[in-house]
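Quick one, C-alpha cells below:
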C-alpha cells in the first residue's frame, strides 16, 4: 500500500480538526475584539460648530410651551451676562 493509507484516517483527524476549529475561533474572537474597541471609541459625539445657540433653544422651547415666561426671561438674562 502507499504511504500507510491502509491504516485509515488515524488519530490526527480528530486533533487536526480540533486544531483548525481553535484557529478559526481565535480569528473570530480577534476580529470581534478589534471591532468592539472601535465602537467604544466612537460613542463620544463631537461638538460641532453648527450647534444651535442656547438662546435659540430657549426661544424654541418657550414657543412650544415647555418653558414659562419667567423661566424664559431668567434664561435670557443669564445668557446675556
Amino acid at each position: 500500500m502507499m504511504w500507510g493509507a491502509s491504516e485509515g484516517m488515524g488519530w490526527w483527524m480528530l486533533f487536526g480538526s480540533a486544531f483548525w476549529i481553535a484557529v478559526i475561533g481565535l480569528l473570530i474572537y480577534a476580529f470581534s475584539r478589534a471591532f468592539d474597541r472601535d465602537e467604544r471609541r466612537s460613542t463620544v459625539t463631537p461638538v460641532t460648530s453648527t450647534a444651535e445657540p442656547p438662546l435659540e433653544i430657549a426661544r424654541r422651547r418657550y414657543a412650544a410651551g415647555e418653558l414659562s415666561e419667567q423661566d424664559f426671561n431668567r434664561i435670557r438674562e443669564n445668557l446675556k451676562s
